[in-house]
Amino acid sequence: MRASFFRLPTALTNSATGTAWLVFVALSAAACGKSGDGGTQPIVTPPGFAVSLSSSSLNVNAGGTASLIATIARTGSFAGTVNVAAEGLPAGVTAAFSPAAITSSVTSTTFSVTAASTTVPGTYTFTIRGTASGITDQTASASITVLAQPAFALSLSSQSLTVQAGSTGRTIAQIARTNFSEAIVMSVEGAPTGVTTQVVTPSLANDTTSLALTVANTVAPGTYALVVRARSSLADRTSPLTLIVTPPPDFTLTSSAATLSVQQGQSTAPATLTIARSGGFTGAVDLTTTGLPSGVTATFANSSVAGASTTLTLTATSTATVGNTNVVVHANAPGLIERTVTIALTVTLAPGGFTLTLTPATLSVPQAASATITVSIVRTAPFSGAVALSLTGAGTGVTATLNSTTIAAGATSATITVAAAILAPTVLSSFAVHATASGVTNQDAPLAVTVAASQASMVSQHVLVQQGLGMALSFSVLQAQLQVIGQSVVHGVGSARACSTMPGSGSVQSLPIGVDNSTRTGFYWDQACTKPYILSDITSFAEDVNHQVDVAATAQYFSLTGAPLGTLRMLETAQVTASTNQFISGLGTFTPATGAPPVNMGISCAVQTAGQTIVPCSGGVVQNFASLGIAVGSVTPLTLHLTALDAPMTFDGNSAVLMTGANNTLTLTAPTHSTLAISGGTVWGTSSQQGGTGTFSLFPALPAGWSITDSQHDMRFAIDFVNDGTGNSTGTVKQISTGSVLATVVVNGSGTGTATWSDGSAAAITGWALAN
């Protein structure tokens, strides 16, 4: 037996899908036996069919359909109908064949699948089975892939845009696709008037595009609801978009004054211009003006305003155009709209006026001196009236006085006298002259005064002269009071003293005349008891067992003409025994009848005893100088050199302490027989005294005189009697180093006269006291 292989026809091996046809291979075995020709029997193809698919895989979207072609290839004598069905499809996928029964004249059918939208995406294997009567079933397998339902989502990078009016804001639209590639059309809906939208890619196949919203300056600030829409064959997708419009950069300009008025030659009060910024604007605003009338200028405190406000002042010249006009203030900032404000300005005619000047406006005045300043006014038409003047200000030790408080119409000047006190401090004092007149602007002028130290101290001149005059008065008082005490003690009560002459000059008697009265005594200029000089009244008299006498006396002083000079009140103590401790001392106050400041004085001396030629004394004097603002005082130790009771005497003393201080601060204390003290104030210097005088008489006999030296201030005061009968004296203050005369004194025995100082001023002397 032999196997034979037959070559298959080409048509049985060709397949468009690559799926093998069912091949029937006929195997024959050679018959054992004899045959006549030795050949083979023919191959017979059995009836049947094959199933093939146009694709081995199928894709379908959930909710969609897909199809492929199933082909029936019959073999052999088979020509019957083939029924097809699908097996193994996933849940949610249904199949349909068109036709489902393939007759002999048909070789293919369309296989369609429909996937429900709920079908779970994935890849599945299914089978198409062909069945025919009497024929073995034939199958073909393929895969089906269920794809997700086509969709897309819309989102924005920012769903809220804040855009300043006049600016543009942007957001990004993003598309998230699912099994979908169709182009999508983008748009923005609901934009208010003045807001324009731009989609960079209105129809996009990619996933992103930019949306631009441009807001005009005219759009009112506020919140607006917009919608971004994405359109395609699928349902539209939308996303809300909130647009917040904020004000644009801007500012406003306002003025505190809507109207201003100014006279020719004057300026308005400053008007405040306020800048209110908004919309984030922080820049500077530049200001200018238009509409100014001729002769009027505008001045800004700051014309480029970085802050919130500035001021505007309008100034009119004396020839500025009179009338009403509108002044416009313009405010500008780069890129912003100009803002303006209008101020109604009225320029009025000047009523005239005047200017005020002082000549000089600054002044240096020496201590104890004065100077004159001229106050001048220049009127401007039509003003021609009177101008009232006043002074303000004060300085320590400096006074300023107007000679007239009005400059009359037609007059142009007045004067001011500035005086510096003798101890005025050398500091600057400020005064001001105020000038006023009806209907015109008041004027003021400052005056600066500096006190200069005097080259020759006026203080020292006053101190030396008053010390000398005080000593003279003290000596006179001592002489007179010794006579009073002597009258009372030696003669005693009931022993009236008739008119009798005194050594040197003058006379004395008890009062009333011819009556025993030891408590009242009169002293006279002449020796006939007709011209009273002192009328003394002992108001208190006491004597103890040790013969110490305490006396209180009041004395009236008269001039040569009989005019009252003043009153002296004195407290005295005398020791009048034969012991060596005899003394007399007193403290009193002389009050001039002229109203000049009182003089406080004291004296203390040992009483001369037999054989005693040196008598210790001390004298003190204190006086207030109200106009100078100071008090002057001194206590001077003296040593009297005697030869006889009725003989002239000389004296000397060293280290007298000169004192100055405020008024009423210097005080003399009650002396003992050896001391006399002064307290208060400040030490001015020291002095020494020397000279000669008559014996203890009312008036010293010629020659007589004494001097006081103040080396510390380079000065010496000397006084000399020139008439023993009247007590007339002359004195000088000289500068020791040069011999220059700084002051002169002329005084009579009654204590009246004149002192002339180095600055040319003069002071009255009354009752042996300086009147000033």
Write structural notes for this entry.
It is a single chain. The strands form ten sheets. This protein has a 19-stranded antiparallel beta sheet, covered by helices on one side. The protein has a five-stranded mixed beta sheet with strand order 2-9-8-4-6, with no helix packed on it. The longest helix has 34 residues, at 458-491. The chain has one helix and 57 strands. A hairpin with a 5-residue loop joins strand 17 and strand 18. The protein is mainly β. It is rod-shaped and about 220 Å long.
Shape: rod-shaped
Q: C-alpha Rg, in Å?
A: 70 Å
What low-confidence regions span 5 or more consecutive residues with pLDDT below 50?
Answer: 1-36
- Backbone structural class: mainly beta
Give a short synopsis of this structure.
By secondary structure, this protein is mostly beta strands. It has one helix and 57 strands.
Summarize the helices and strands and which ones pair or pack:
Blueprint: E1 48-53, E2 57-61, E3 65-75, E4 82-87, E5 93-98, E6 101-102, E7 108-115, E8 122-132, E9 135-147, E10 151-156, E11 160-164, E12 168-178, E13 184-189, E14 195-199, E15 203-204, E16 208-215, E17 222-231, E18 237-246, E19 250-255, E20 259-263, E21 271-278, E22 285-290, E23 296-300, E24 304-305, E25 309-316, E26 323-332, E27 339-348, E28 353-359, E29 362-366, E30 370-380, E31 387-394, E32 398-402, E33 406-407, E34 413-420, E35 428-436, E36 443-452, H1 458-491, E37 500-501, E38 507-510, E39 520-524, E40 532-543, E41 548-558, E42 564-575, E43 583-592, E44 599-606, E45 614-625, E46 630-641, E47 649-661, E48 667-669, E49 677-679, E50 682-693, E51 705-710, E52 715-723, E53 728-735, E54 741-747, E55 753-756, E56 762-766, E57 769-770
Parallel strand pairs: 2-9, 11-18, 20-27, 29-36
Antiparallel strand pairs: 1-3, 3-7, 4-6, 4-8, 5-7, 8-9, 10-12, 12-16, 13-15, 13-17, 14-16, 17-18, 19-21, 21-25, 22-24, 22-26, 23-25, 26-27, 28-30, 30-34, 31-33, 31-35, 32-34, 35-36, 37-38, 38-39, 39-40, 40-41, 41-42, 42-43, 43-44, 44-45, 45-46, 46-47, 47-50, 48-49, 50-51, 51-52, 52-53, 53-54, ...
